[in-house]
Amino acid sequence: MSWITRTRQQLTGFLAKRDTPENLWTKCKNCGAMVYTKEWEDNDHVCPRCDHHDRIGGRARFAQLFDGDYRLLAAPRVAEDPLKFKDQKRYVDRLKAARAQTGEQDAMLCADGTITGHRAVVGVQDFAFMGGSMGMSVGETFLSGVDAALAAKCPFIMFTAAGGARMQEGILSLMQMPRTTVGIQMLKDAGLPYIVVLTDPTTGGVTASYAMLGDIQIAEPNALIGFAGQRVIEQTIREKLPEGFQRAEYLLEHGMLDMVVHRRDLKPTLGQLIGLLMARRLAA
Question: In sequence order, what are the beta bridge partners of 160?
């Protein structure tokens, strides 16, 4: 064995023992800046260079919003692959891959806790799970959040992020649109606030149902919000759409949103809104 080979082996063994984090850096999807992952997380997954709001899942969102401990609501059991759907892959295989990637059973989580001292039930869609698509599990989880809010007599806050209905469940996914709408009406009948925070992206059947039915409509900066895609709309109306069309700031300017709120300000803003709305309910 030559001295070159021995030296290479010694160096390889030394380097292999070094405890180096796998994800030391995070690349911003908007400006391409490389940011220390710790700095990225400390900044609520918002780029400190360009202020881009990255997509986050339920557990990260709960950690940012709730005062401390929270109770994760049990995910309802639903039939998996009721249509035995298969395209390029079997639906069951897509579910397994999404669960392995995210560590969650489906695209929505609900939790019960306090926000600046006010009790609330919060639902969060995770775009990382099959594009946050709305299937039977998402519909049932949404309704379980509504039931929890009704039982606790507190607001229900929904963070949306979805590409629309889940095609692998066909008409069963589309039926979640009226089902969730009925759940929202139950909250209104009980005089409980339903607040929606639209995050990037919120599109399709989710936009056409529970995403746009809030008592107060909030969005994160530059979030993409719409029903059909911009290219589809342009091909249909044969016109060029305005700059920033379907972005949160454009929708705020045209009256479809009540406010656009930076992620760092969401917790105090929601806490203030809950206090005002619940005080009004008690006065009534």
Answer: 198
Residues of the chain with CATH 3.90.226.10: 56-283
Amino acid identity at 147: D
CB atoms within 10 A of CB 73: 18
Identify the CA nearest to 69 among candidates 115, 125, 126.
115
- Tokens 């606790």 locate to 152
**pLDDT tier, 282 (very low <50, low <70, confident <90, very high otherwise):** confident
User: Which pair of tokens denotes residue 187?
Assistant: 């909250």
Distance CA 157, CA 160 (A): 10
Report the relative pairing of strands 25-27 and 34-36 from DSSP bridges.
antiparallel
Distance from C-alpha of 146 to C-alpha of 154, rounded to nearest angstrom: 10
Q: Which residues contact residue 96 at a Cβ distance below 8 angstroms, ignoring those fewer than 6 apart? A: none
In degrees rounded to 5, what are phi and psi of residue 240? -80, 130
Q: Which CATH architecture has domain 56-283?
A: Alpha-Beta Complex (3.90)
pLDDT reading at 12 higher than 90:
no
